[in-house]
Description:
41% of the residues lie in helices and 15% in strands. The protein has a 5-stranded mixed beta sheet, with helices on both faces. It is globular. A hairpin with a 5-residue loop joins strand 6 and strand 7. It has helices at 11-18, 53-58, 65-76, 109-126, 136-143, 149-152, 171-175, 180-200, and strands at residues 44-48, 84-88, 95-98, 101-104, 130-134, 156-158, 164-168. It is of the alpha/beta class. It has one domain: Uracil-DNA Glycosylase, subunit E. It is built from 8 helices and 7 strands; from the N terminus they run αβααβββαβααββαα. Residues 18, 21-24, 26-27, 33, 90-92, 111, 114-115, 118 line the site of iron/sulfur cluster.
Amino acid sequence: MAQPPAKAKTVGELSAAAAACQGCDLWQEATQTVFGEGKEGAPMMLVGEQPGDQEDLQGRPFVGPAGRVLEQALDEAGIDRRRVYVTNAVKHFRFTRRGKRRLHEKPNAAQVRACRPWLEAEIEVVKPGLIVLLGATAAQSVMGPAFRVSKQHGEVLESPFGIPVVATVHPSSILRSVDDKSRDAAMSSFIADLMVAAKQA
Ligand code: SF4
């Protein structure tokens, strides 16, 4: 078991410590810890759910298909990804095996809770001006279990960290749209939420 070192001053120090974390069972099956990326002092922090298959293999957040949707949406919202810190509420990939494939499985409440100290430590070190919560897992990790993204997305809210937050969907939900029309609508709504965030950061 590893906890964030109290004296960590940089993302690099936190990331190195998290590589040895065994705070829940997810380290056993995943390839590696996938820590956040970006600079201390980034004006905006994006928090997703957990690394996916590609992120787990490459050891970097948002490098798979959902990351490409995110990149496009940030671009359309006028947000420079280089000025954004990206991370996840849970730092190890949770999945079930189906033959050779590894299928995403939502982290449970105990796993999200176990990983929260790492997210808190990142927020403490990065000190973003605004946090964007991507999807229900990130939103509930920060805002509590009663929070509903469907009801409160696109609003600027105060977080328990004293930093404003904007909640929106996770980009992977756009990939799961059933047809082009619903995909376009979901993408437009996602970009509109990010534009709210862009005005604040
Ligand atoms: S998911 Fe988080 S708490 Fe669980 S082992 Fe990984 S880094 Fe530690």
